[in-house]
Specification:
globular; about 70% helix; about 800 residues; UCS_central_dom
Length: about 800
């Protein structure tokens, strides 16, 4: 311990020595400090050696390397330790820590973001557990510290001089920290507090225009992050009164800019409405209905100034999201958008006007009979979108709008067919999805869902269709090019163009723009890509298995289920040890077990059982993981399922799990019918079910000889079942039968005597005379044991 003390002191001396500037020695010292802080004992040493004040001096130097080392060391000190976190915050000053987020250097800002995330986690844990640190020290109320931290983050949002990256990081932290993790948690007090104290600040970022003079510095992703935060806060509200308060605050803020602030104020108000329409659209729609807002949007579309036109056209595009309003804009805004598209000299305006037309043109969704525009118009729009998408000269922010347009137009099957044929457009789409322009993710995922038809589609009941026609009701029609054969061909073309590697990059994105609904879209596409067995190898080779794991563990319920089903398909047909190398294979178990729940479809249950069967056959550690996830009772339940394929898959899975001691204990326990079920299934007509049950029986009787004496007690038909197995024309069933008989003969003389008094002796004698095989060897061993017991005598020739 004393040597550690000396080392900590020595490292700080080197780091704070101005003579050592930029030397390798200094670099080594900073790395050592970070490594030491990762261990709890090392972190405690640094903390007790006046480390926090010394780290503050490193932060004050302004040197990037030293600041990074200090922040990473502080992460180790605060990680999962509430009392040290509170002490660190009071020593460094909450304001000081938060202000590091706003520096221009991206790496330092990210390191500060990670430190604050660790601090939030430690404090939140403290709120749950009560006010005690690890070492039992009574400390101040962590809820107060939490609010002080959040309050400082909200202040940072509207501070002039803060970098755009820092603002984005602050929004990301608020998205992760403020809303409840689950609706089961009754306390949404933090959300209400943020809405009351910081909603205007968040709206101010949401209403900012990128880089105009005198405005807040924002990045291309800032407004989208603000929209996501507003959406999360709104979804976290529990009652109408809370939602009404949210609406009121938003409307008051918009009104304050809209009235008496001139044209600049109106632009700011409209931009804020756009931000709300992309986030909590209920609040955005309420704001649009405010007096004069929609009229101003239409009027500003005709402005001479590019900036004003941009803001107004974007607002119009977002406003067209609701079908009710889309029809109003179709009537009033189409001619305006067409004019902008044809007459504007600026690509940035034309591309947005085009997206507006795309959005209105796709208002009928996949319904072939609901055409908004004349035949061929949507194909022309799509062609222009693809042209812009492939144009490298246009910046990524503007090309993103071309993807938005395609996301709407790809509801039309003709557009899908043309799009997947255009290899250059697909390559440009995938390239853009990997770029820094994160707000394009949802649009890319939507376009891919449409191209692969992986949205939910229920075949309408023919009788209901007839009834609807008779009642003169509108009946949606499916496009002829949306038939399965066309969809399969499109999937093949997407795979050939490299869709999997693009989606793998999208799924890895650590950004609030990758929302749960975006994850769900990616999960849907992955499931469509692995539908055909021959395509699964390509998906695995390009990293699809690795990308599916986080999608199956986080996101919407539907998204997690779809990703888990895709994992099951991959686990069934390819070697799981290659698909999920190393420790990753153990992460697959939980998503697969989640598919066994009753709310999943029969196909999902079946695929999960098949996949778990494969995993259970690999190693004891994997079987233990399956047991730990409480899968055994569910698998047992499916052994009674009426559907023969599910019943068979469950029995096969149980057969593989029977290699585990805990499962053997379950079969050996008194007062249950588990053994009886396996014996009865061994006599079923379904050959595959028979094989699984007999395999399980052979395994259990060899591992637990005590079960052999219980087989005659479970059913009166036991002897007939064993004889059927021994006489089966299927070599595998015969082998399993002879192994069960051998285990029973070896277990006790009494059971052997019962077997030798029956026709089993005659059958075994015949089996020993066959060609050398596992069956003949087992049959010979049975008779040898019977001779040993003195139940039978060897024949004259010594056989």
């Amino acid at each position: 311990m004393s040597s550690t003390d000396a080392k900590v002191e020595q490292m700080f001396q080197i780091l704070l020595d101005p003579q050592e500037k930029g030397t390798e020695k200094k670099q080594k010292a900073s790395q050592n400090l970070v490594v030491l802080a990762r261990e709890d004992a090392g972190a405690e040493k640094i903390f007790r050696s006046n480390g926090v004040q010394l780290l503050q001096r490193l932060l004050d130097t302004g040197e990037t390397d030293l600041m990074l080392a200090a922040l990473r060391t502080l992460v180790g000190i605060c990680s999962e330790h509430q009392s040290r976190t509170v002490a660190t915050l009071s020593m460094l000053g909450t304001r000081q820590v938060v202000s590091i987020l706003g520096v221009e250097n991206q790496a330092v800002s990210l390191a500060a973001c990670h430190l604050l995330q660790v601090m939030f986690d430690a404090l939140k844990e403290g709120v749950k557990k009560g006010f005690r640190g690890k070492e039992g020290a009574i400390i101040v109320d962590p809820a107060r510290e939490l609010k002080v931290l959040i309050s400082n983050l909200l202040e940072l949002l509207t501070e002039v001089g803060v970098s755009g990256q820092g603002r984005d990081n602050a929004l990301t932290l608020l998205i992760k920290v403020v809303p409840r993790k689950t609706p089961k948690d009754p306390n949404n007090g933090l959300t209400l507090w943020v809405i009351d104290h910081g909603l205007k600040k968040i709206l101010e970022v949401g209403g900012s225009v990128q880089d105009p003079p005198g405005e807040l510095t924002v990045t291309a992703n800032s407004r989208m992050s603000a929209s996501i935060l507003l959406s999360k806060l709104f979804d976290d509200l529990k009652c109408d009164a809370e939602r009404e308060n949210f609406h009121r605050l938003c409307e008051n803020y918009i009104k304050s800019w809209f009235e008496g602030q001139g044209l600049a104020g109106k632009l700011r108000a409209i931009q804020t409405v756009s931000c709300l329409l992309q986030g909590p659209c209920d609040a955005g729609n309420r704001a649009l209905e405010m007096n004069g807002v929609m009229e101003s949007v239409i009027a500003l579309c005709a402005s001479e100034q590019e900036e004003e036109q941009l803001v107004a056209v974007e607002a119009l595009i977002h406003a067209a999201g609701k079908a009710k309003r889309a029809s109003f804009i179709t009537a009033n805004g189409v001619s305006l958008l067409k004019d902008l598209y044809k007459r504007s000299e600026k690509d940035s305006i034309r591309i947005r006007a085009l997206v507006g037309l795309c959005k209105l043109g796709s208002a009928g969704g996949t319904d072939f009979s609901m055409k908004q525009f004349a035949e061929g118009s949507t194909l022309k729009l799509a062609k222009q979108c693809r042209k812009w998408l492939c144009n490298d000269q246009i910046d990524a922010g503007t090309r993103r709008w071309a993807v938005e347009g395609l996301a709407y137009l790809t509801f039309d099957a003709d557009v899908k067919e043309e799009f997947v044929e255009d290899e250059a457009a697909l390559k440009a789409l995938f390239q853009l999805s990997k770029s820094e322009e994160r707000s394009v993710l949802f649009a890319v995922a939507s376009a891919l869902v449409n191209c692969t038809n992986s949205y939910d589609y229920e075949e309408p009941d023919p009788k209901m269709v007839e009834l609807a026609k008779y009642a003169k009701q509108h009946v949606p029609e499916q496009h002829p090019k949306d038939k399965p054969s066309f969809v399969r061909a499109r999937v093949k073309k997407l795979l050939a163009a490299g869709v999997v590697s693009a989606m793998t990059c999208m799924a890895k994105t650590d950004s609030p723009v990758l929302t749960n609904s975006c994850r769900e879209l990616l999960s849907r596409v992955f499931l469509a890509l692995v539908e055909e067995v021959e395509d699964r190898g390509t998906v695995v080779a390009q990293g699809g298995g690795k990308a599916l794991l986080p999608l199956a563990l986080e996101g919407t319920d539907v998204g997690q289920t779809k990703a888990a089903q895709a994992l099951a398909k991959l686990t069934i047909t390819s070697n799981p040890e290659i698909t999920f190398p190393g420790e990753r294979i153990y992460e697959v178990v939980r998503p697969l077990v989640s598919l066994l729940h009753l709310n999943c479809s029969g196909l999902q249950n079946f695929e999960a059982l098949m996949a778990l069967t494969n995993l259970a056959g690999i190693s004891e550690r994997l079987r233990q993981k399956i047991l730990k996830e409480k899968a055994v009772p569910m698998i047992e339940g499916y052994m009674f399922e009426e559907h023969e394929m599910i019943r068979r898959a469950a029995t096969e899975c149980m057969c593989n799990l029977a290699m585990s001691k805990e499962v053997q204990d379950l079969f050996e326990a008194e007062g249950n019918d588990r053994l009886k079920l396996l014996v009865l299934y061994s006599g079923e007509d379904d050959e595959l079910l028979q094989r699984a049950a007999a395999g399980g029986l052979a395994m259990l009787t060899s591992m637990r000889p005590s079960l052999c004496s219980r087989i005659p007690q479970v059913t009166t038909h036991w002897l007939e079942i064993l004889q059927d197995l021994l006489l089966s024309p299927n070599q595998e069933l015969q082998h399993r039968g002879t192994v069960v008989v051998l285990n029973m003969v070896e277990a006790s003389r009494e059971t052997a005597s019962t077997l030798m008094e029956s026709e089993v002796l005659e059958i075994l004698s015949v089996l020993t005379k066959g060609k050398e095989s596992p069956v003949t060897r087992a049959a010979t061993a049975c008779l040898g044991k019977a001779v040993e017991y003195g139940l039978i005598k060897p024949s004259q020739d010594g056989e």
